[in-house]
Specification:
Blueprint (H helix, E strand, L loop, with lengths): L40 H10 L8 E2 L9 E8 L3 H17 L3 E9 L7 H15 L4 E5 L3 E3 L13 E2 L3 E2 L15 E5 H6 L13 H11 L13 E4 L11 H11 L11 E7 L4 E6 L1
Bound molecules: 2-(butanoylamino)-2-deoxy-beta-D-glucopyranose.
Length: 284
C-alpha cells in the first residue's frame, strides 16, 4: 500500500493480550447490520438495552483484543432526531465490527443563530480533547451512512476525505476539492491548520475553507477508492445556502491563520453522557 494511505496506529501497546486483527486482514462483510432508515424511539431503546458493549457516553472498544485505532467521532447537530437515531443504530454496529476504539460526540447548536457546522466541529474537538483526548478525529455529518466495512474509521497519515462516493452525487466527486460530509484528520494536523473557520453561519463553504487550510499547510488529502468510500445520504429537505459564503471564503483566504481554534468562543449549555453518545449543547 502506498505510504500516504497507511493507517496511523495508536501509539500505545497492549500490556496483556494482543492487537485485534482488523477487518482488512479478515475480509468481513456487512452481513447482519442491514441499514434501517426508519428507527423509532422504541427500536433505539431496545437496541440500547441489548448492546452490552457500549459504555455510557457512546464509547466502545473491542473486548477480547486491543484496537490499533482510537478515534473521537464528532457530529454537529440540530433538529434531526430521526436521522440521529438511524445514524446511531447503524454506526455503533459498524464501528464494533471494525473493532475500533471510539466515542461518538454529538454537538448540538442552540436555536438562535443559523447552523454553524465548522464552529460546532471546533467546539467538539476542543471539549473532547479536555475530557477524552484522542490523536485522531472524524468530523461526520449525521445524514451520512458508510456502506463498505473497508472504509476503516481511523486516521491515515494524510487527512482523508471519507465520503468521496455519495449516492446523491452518483458516487462521483462533484468537484476535486470537495471536502465535506465525513473527514478523518489527526489532532496534530487539525491543530496545525487552526481547525475550521468559525465564520460560516448557514449552509456551505466551511468544508471548502477547510480544504483550503489543508492545502495551504501542504498536508495533502487522500481518498479511498470508490467502492470503499461509498455512502448513503439520508433524505432531508435541502438547506438554504448562506448567501455570504463566497465573501467569507474570499476573506478567509487572507485571515485563516488568525481565525479558527485560536479565537473560538462559545457557551456550553450542558454536557451529558447519553447511553449512545456524549451530548454537548452549545450556544455559538
Ligand atoms: C459546494 C459547497 C460545499 C458543499 C458542496 C456539496 C459552497 C462554497 C462556495 C464558495 N460550497 O458548492 O459547502 O459541501 O457544495 O454539497 O457553497
Amino acid at each position: 500500500m502506498p505510504n500516504h494511505l497507511l493507517l496511523r496506529e495508536s501509539g500505545s501497546q497492549p500490556i496483556n493480550g494482543n492487537f485485534c486483527f482488523h477487518l482488512y486482514e479478515r475480509q468481513l462483510s456487512l452481513e447482519g447490520i442491514e441499514l434501517n432508515v426508519n428507527i423509532s424511539d422504541v427500536v433505539l431503546k431496545t437496541f440500547t438495552n441489548s448492546s452490552k458493549n457500549i459504555t455510557i457516553g457512546g464509547a466502545s472498544k473491542p473486548v477480547d483484543c486491543f484496537s490499533k485505532y482510537r478515534v473521537n467521532i464528532v457530529v454537529p447537530y440540530r433538529r434531526r432526531p430521526e436521522q440521529l437515531r438511524v445514524f446511531l443504530h447503524y454506526l455503533h454496529r459498524y464501528l464494533q465490527l471494525q473493532e475500533i476504539d471510539y466515542r461518538i460526540i454529538v454537538v448540538e447548536q442552540s436555536p438562535e443563530m443559523h447552523f454553524n457546522r465548522g464552529k460546532l466541529f471546533n467546539v467538539g474537538f476542543v471539549e473532547s480533547q479536555k475530557r477524552f483526548p484522542s490523536d485522531c478525529y472524524i468530523f461526520h455529518d449525521v445524514d451520512l451512512i458508510p456502506l463498505s466495512l473497508n472504509n476503516i474509521y481511523a486516521c491515515t497519515k494524510m487527512p482523508r476525505h471519507l465520503s468521496s462516493a455519495v449516492d446523491t452525487f452518483d458516487y462521483e466527486l462533484p468537484y476535486c476539492g470537495i471536502f465535506g460530509g465525513a473527514v478523518a484528520i489527526t489532532s496534530q494536523h487539525f491543530q496545525s491548520i487552526n481547525g475550521f473557520s468559525n465564520l460560516f453561519y448557514g449552509w456551505g463553504g466551511e468544508d471548502d475553507d477547510l480544504y483550503f487550510r489543508v492545502s495551504q499547510a501542504e498536508l495533502g488529502v487522500v481518498r479511498f477508492e470508490k467502492n470503499v468510500a461509498k455512502y448513503k445520504m439520508l433524505r432531508h429537505e435541502k438547506e438554504v445556502p448562506n448567501p455570504n459564503r463566497f465573501v467569507t471564503m474570499k476573506k478567509n483566504k487572507i485571515i485563516h491563520a488568525v481565525e479558527g481554534l485560536n479565537n473560538l468562543n462559545y457557551t456550553m449549555l450542558s454536557y451529558e453522557l447519553k447511553s449512545l453518545y456524549t451530548l454537548m449543547r452549545v450556544h455559538l
